[in-house]
Amino acid sequence: MQYGRASESGLIQPGGGAILAKYLIVNADDFGFSRRVNDGIWHAHTAGAITSATLMANMPGFDHAVWLAQRTPSLGVGLHINLTYGKPLSPKEDIPSLVGLEGYFSDRRVGWNPEEAELEIERQLDKLLAARMTPTHLDTHHHIHIEVPSIYAILKKIALRRRIPMRRHPWAETGGDAPLQTERLIMDTFDDGNGTARLLRYLEDLPEGTTEIMCHPGYGEDKGTAASQGSAARAAELQTFTDPAVREAIRQLDIRLIHYGQLADVPASPVPDVPAIAETAPEQVEIFLPQSGTTAVPLSVPAAGRRRRKSSYSRGRGKRRMRIKRRKRKPARVHRGNRRKR
């Protein structure tokens, strides 16, 4: 059987040899949230490291996102199932446990009726299919399939029935009847001043096999609008994932960029000798995500104590840092008038 190989752009292409390599999906959540978010994700794909996006079927930017996706076949597009933000596709009478008095999702995440949740999820999936979009995979807004066990069970059932991959649950089962998924999931935010540096460290430590990095890039929204919450964080992540240093690192580290639609063609790797990256630390950390405030997610760190052989790219960065450290600094001048008398 023939598998894909990396092209100059880093995307997997048909016809390569079946060799074990580092495969990376970089997924932008919230496609369809607004035109500004859509444009940012599209830019991060065409000029950056984004390979995949997940589309929100109930948000005002849906039609614009579909228009962009249909003109950009290299971008894998899945369904970003949303039960916590905006208005549902179902009438509120059909899903009373999911909505408040005004018909918007309540975001309380407790007391949900699983049958009502499945009904709304199926309607969101049907809307994608009606728009002639075949979803490459499934994931959820605000990570509800990780936080709410009943939602994970519903997604798993739908994914297996429709043969659609889904974003892995950090502590869920793998193999057997589990849906097709990556071996690792990196959940982090890259919206601070160290976002690019932290992303480069993840790339340097990336093991062989399949990994997904999730993110939330987008252009900033107008201040005072409902969509402006978290706008600065989106813009910062957009800058991180379009940084030329990221693409250069991916090239030098020989990381193969794919999306979920290509996951089935990746050669199966042996069972990892350590848990998935997001599984290595049961500690929960509070992080800010756009339109969600803070949420508890697994701390995403490489396995403690696991030493990896450094690549030539990593060694080069280390040598450059050493050269900077070795430069002698001129001693600071101290004016006599400023010295304290003992």
UniProtKB/TrEMBL annotation:
Q: Which GO terms describe its biological process?
A: carbohydrate metabolic process
- Cofactor(s) the protein requires to work: Mg(2+)
Q: Name one GO molecular function term.
A: deacetylase activity
Which spans does this entry mark as compositional bias, Basic residues? 305-342
The ranges of region (Disordered) come to: 299-342
Q: Which UniProt key words apply to this protein?
A: Carbohydrate metabolism, Hydrolase, Magnesium, Metal-binding
Note the InterPro entries from the entry: Glyco_hydro/deAcase_b/a-brl (IPR011330), YdjC-like (IPR006879)
Q: Name one Pfam family in it.
A: YdjC
The protein depicted here goes by the name ChbG/HpnK family deacetylase
Species, as recorded: Paenibacillus ginsengarvi
